[in-house]
Amino acid sequence: MQEVVIGTRSSRLALIQADMVCSALKTKLHDISFLVKTIKTTGDVITDIPLEKINDKGIFIKELENALLDGEIDLAVHSMKDMPTELPPGLQIGAVLEREKPWDVFIGNPQGTKITDLETGAKIGSSSLRRRAQLKHHYPHLDICSIRGNIETRYRKLKEGQFDGLILAYAGVARMGWLESVSEVLPGNVCLPAVGQGAIGVEARIVDRDLLAMISNINCPLTSATVKAERAFLKKLEGGCQIPVGALGVIENDLLMLTGLVASLDGSIIFRATEKGNLEEADAVGLSLAGKLLQQGCGTILEQIKMECIENEY
Fold this sequence. Notes:
There is one protein chain. This protein is of the alpha/beta class. The protein folds into 3 domains: 1-98 and 199-219, Periplasmic binding protein-like II (D-Maltodextrin-Binding Protein, domain 2, 3-Layer(aba) Sandwich), CATH 3.40.190.10; 104-186, 3-Layer(aba) Sandwich (D-Maltodextrin-Binding Protein, domain 2); 221-314, Double Stranded RNA Binding Domain. It contains 10 helices and 13 strands. It has helices spanning 12-28, 42-45, 62-69, 129-138, 151-159, 170-176, 209-215, 221-237, 282-296, 298-312, and strands spanning 2-8, 32-38, 75-79, 91-96, 104-108, 123-126, 143-146, 165-169, 184-186, 200-205, 245-252, 255-263, 270-278. The strands form 3 sheets. A 5-stranded mixed sheet has the order 2-1-3-10-4, sandwiched between helices. Strands 7-6-8-5-9 form a 5-stranded mixed sheet, with helices on both faces.
C-alpha cells in the first residue's frame, strides 16, 4: 500500500487540520495510507516578538516547505491565511478544503462579556495588525494589545486575566471545540477577515502529478476561487511586510463578490471597496479591487508601514 507523508505544524490546531485533510482523503482514496509528521516552524519557536517585527511572511510555513522540497514529506497542510502570496519555485497549492466560517470572534473575560460591555482602557489581545487596526477604528477607547503564541497559549493568557478579551478566528475556535466560550461573532463591517481565513490548503511539489491529481479530489472549487481572488488582491498591495489588510470573497448569484480594505496602523483611516466578476476570473477580480483601493489613496498608508517595517525589523 502506498504511504503518503503529510507535514504539519505541531500545535493542537494544526494537527486537527491535518487530520481533517487525512479524513477527507481517506473517504476518496482507500488504497493509500497517510502518515502525519510534525515539523516545528520559526513561528512556533519565536513567540515573544510581535509578528509585524519579524520580516518573514513565511514564518509559519517555511520549514514545512523546505521539508516538502527536500522530499522529507509528500504534502504540507497549512492555514491559508498563513500562506505568503509567493510560493517557492516547484511548489503549488493543490487543494483548498471547503471553508469554515471566515469571521473573527470576540471572547470576553469573564465569559459572555461583549466588546461593547468593556470600559475605557480594557485590554483586548490580538496577534494581527489587521484586527488591531480595525478594532482601534471602531473602539478607540479600548487598549488593543499584541499577543503571541498558538491559539491555546493565547486562550490561556486570557483565562489568567492578562486580557479582558481576545480576538480569534471563528474557524480555529470551532475546530478546537471552544465555540461555547465565544461572546460574539464580529461582523465584516467591524472586522473584515484575513485573506484565506477559515480555509485549509494542501501544498505539493509541481512535479508530483499523481499526488496533485489525488488531492484534487478534496478541492472545493468555490473556496478555491474566493481564496484565489483574495490572494491576488493581497499580492498586488503587499510590500514585504505585515500590513493591515482584510479581504473576503463570497459567491452571490454565481458571481464572485470580493470586499477588501487597507487600514492605517492606528485605525484612524480605512480604505474599503468591493469588486465583482466571474469565478473563472478570480485573479482579475482581486487585482481590480486592489487597483480601486490604490486609486483611493491607500498607497500612502502602505508606504508608511513599509518604512516602519524596515526601521523596526527584528
